[in-house]
Every structure is written in structure tokens, then in C-alpha cells.
Amino acid sequence: QVQLTESGGGLVQAGGSLRLSCAASGRTFSIVTMGWFRQAPGKEREFVAAVTWTDGNTYYTASVKGRFTISRDNAKNIVALQMNGLKPEDTAVYYCAAQTRLRSGVPLQRGYNYDYWGQGTQVTVSS
Q1: Residues 92-126 pLDDT 10s
Q2: Which pLDDT value is given to residue 18?
Q3: Cβ neighbours of residue 41 closer than 8 Å, sequence gap 6 or more
Q4: 3-state helix, strand, coil in the chain (%, to 5)
């Protein structure tokens, strides 16, 4: 089992910044990839960013490229999402997720890939 705890959400004005953190505990040695997803009211959950745990490769959805940065600290088992240039459309509940099993042919952007999820943290961007 892997437990994930997010922190760092809040209310910010458009153009502002927030930093989300996700602390992993438990069987962290089994983590392959860590990702961030978000879900806005009335919308489906969507992929935001991911980082592979061993080699640190990063992946972003197009709408956040150049504004968001995902990073990981393997020693502390923490993954962070630095969000700059926030827009009202970034408003959502943000979820941290951990992949512990490889699924051949399934893109990292698919929520199906992830085995453990955090409880979510609210990010609200006012215009």
C-alpha cells in the first residue's frame, strides 16, 4: 500500500502562483510514476503532469506547459507541482496519484494507470 497526502491548495488571483506537494508513505519503493490530475465541477478528471520516479522524465498536458513544473524528491518521497501564471480555468480539485504497476501500452496520461490516489486539494483562481 502507498498512502498519498496532498497539501498547498488555496485561493489565488489570476496570474498568481501556488505550489502543491504530495507526500508518499508506505511501500514507496514500488512507485514507478507520480502524477497530478485535476477535476473541475461538472467536468471529468483530467491529467495535468507526471514524473517517472527513477529517471525523472516529465510529462505535461498542453494547457499547463510552460506554466506548471512537476518535480520529485526521491529521498523524501515527495512530488511537487509548481503552478505559475494561474488562470481561472485552472480552478479544480487537484489529486496526486502513484503508479506502482507497469501497464504495457497505457499512456501515463490515463488515470487507469495509477494505483493510489490522494484525497485531493482545492485550487481556486479568481479573475
Answers
A1: 999 999 999 988 888 899 999 999 999 999 999 99
A2: 98
A3: none
A4: 10, 50, 40
